[in-house]
TrEMBL record:
Enzyme class: transferase
UniProt name for this protein: Phosphoglycerate kinase
Keyword Cytoplasm found: yes
Pfam families named among the record's database cross-references: PGK
UniProtKB keywords: ATP-binding, Cytoplasm, Glycolysis, Kinase, Nucleotide-binding, Transferase
Catalytic activity: (2R)-3-phosphoglycerate + ATP = (2R)-3-phospho-glyceroyl phosphate + ADP
């Protein structure tokens, strides 16, 4: 993989360099609640701008449906990037259209622009190679060189991640180089016991990872939205909690295999429930009830692990040689459902082992709940990406940078 240092030594002054970043930051309306992913790409953007490149930053944000949707505009992220750089950052109101063309054409050496959300274009995420290719051609027309630095999205076979690098000279940015360097440690040289804590809301993406982890980790702790599919698979009622029904047979098989292989697959013993999802705007008190994990009342949803589970998970993390944690244990954005995530974060801080936190929301949780980033071995910007890396999968966005 050629890195940005090689590009810089070849000289980039006057060249249009497209940086595929992951600026998929959590938003409350148009307010960025955690800018970690923007900060993470700064070294790359700064180095290119200082070397006189005309920098075009492209990213996705959220999961819009292949058409413009103002709720997912990158405008707030572009503004924040400008603040962090201490420079004006131009913003194109489309991704590959007139605005993008004019914005990029108007860049002087050393200036930076952000184009609108890649996923406002159906070609970005299309499963059809030709459709993705057409969109990649249009992106390629905006640049002379490609720098891949959106680690959080390297597991996606998307036009800007996979097809575009094939069309331009391509290099890995500083963030990708750092992330891969640290995660390699978790695959090559693991101090044991290796404990993995999984939570979050992207249940369908993450359940499959357990399949691979069953052969790698000694202990897997399950929390967040995915816990309820496990409880359901064990025959418990889960009310209106998140459920990935089609995964129940797979989950039953994981539970059986864990038993046979001597892997501890640990599930919540209690959970916080409420009749409704909390109001995330007002953050009004949600008054949740704590119930045993096998006694979730009908019409109630599980929104955090309970106090007994917090203690249990802390004890399971206490002697870990290595910890990888992805996905909040509950809806941590609401104060009534933040304790589970706090307890796991604290257990990592207290752990003598090498600790890695992976995921946009998990990293945001750690920071917004007031933990010191330095207390963790590594905070990865990629959730799904780091999990798939640890699974040993070939990641499209890394493979594309290799040849
Ligand atoms: N029980 C639950 N029910 C519903 N949502 C939940 C539950 N527990 C956690 N969440 C939500 O999960 C979200 C984070 O999940 P996600 O899988 O995206 O995490 P991540 O891996 O850190 O991020 P990413 O994969 O996007 O990098 C949070 O917004 C949180 O509110
Ligand atoms: O948040 C993430 O994990 C990355 O930004 C990728 O987003 P996605 O899961 O919507 O592809």
């Amino acid at each position: 993989m050629k890195t940005i240092d090689e590009l810089l030594s070849e000289g980039v002054a006057g060249k249009r360099v497209l940086v595929r970043a992951d600026l998929n930051v959590p938003l409350d309306g148009t307010t960025i609640t955690d800018d970690g992913r923007i900060r993470a790409v700064l070294p790359t953007v700064k180095a290119l701008a200082e070397a006189g490149a005309r920098v075009v930053v492209a990213s996705h944000l959220g999961r819009p449906k292949g058409a413009p949707d103002p709720a997912f505009s990158l405008a707030p992220a572009a503004a924040r990037l400008g603040e962090l750089l201490g420079a004006d950052v131009a913003f194109a109101t489309d991704t590959v259209g007139e605005s993008a063309g004019a914005t990029v054409a108007g860049l002087a050496d050393g200036q930076v622009a952000v184009v609108e959300n890649l996923r406002f274009n159906a070609g970005e995420t299309s499963k059809d190679d030709a459709e993705r290719g057409e969109f990649a051609d249009r992106l390629a027309a905006l640049a002379d060189v490609y720098v891949g630095d959106g680690f959080g999205a390297v597991h996606r076979k998307h036009a800007s991640v996979f097809d575009l690098p094939a069309r331009l000279p391509h290099y890995a940015g500083y963030l990708i180089a750092t992330e891969v360097g640290v995660l390699r440690k978790l695959t090559d040289d693991v101090r044991r016991p290796y404990v993995v804590a999984l939570g979050g809301a992207k249940v369908s993406d993450k359940l499959a990872v357990i399949d691979a982890l069953l052969g790698k980790a000694e202990r897997i702790l399950i929390g967040g939205g995915m816990a309820y599919t496990f409880l359901k698979a064990q025959g418990h009622e889960i009310g209106t909690s998140l459920l990935q029904e089609d995964q129940i047979p797979a989950v039953r098989e994981y539970l059986e295999r864990a038993g046979k292989n001597g892997v501890e697959l640990v599930l919540p013993v209690d959970t916080l429930v409420a009749a409704e999802f909390p109001d995330m705007k007002t953050k009004a008190p949600a008054n949740p009830t704590t119930v045993a994990a096998d006694a979730i009342p009908a019409g109630h949803m599980g929104l955090d692990i309970g106090p007994e589970t917090r203690k249990l998970y802390a004890s399971k993390l206490a002697d870990a040689g290595t910890v990888f944690w992805n996905g909040p244990m509950g809806v941590f954005e609401h104060p009534d459902y933040a304790e589970g995530t706090k307890a796991v974060a604290q257990a990592l801080v207290d752990s003598p082992g090498f600790t890695v936190v992976g995921g946009g929301d998990s990293a945001a949780a750690v920071r917004t709940l007031g933990f010191d980033e330095q207390a963790f071995g590594h905070i990865s910007t990629g959730g799904g990406a780091s999990l798939e890396y640890l699974e040993g999968k070939t990641l499209p966005g890394l493979a594309a940078l290799e040849d």
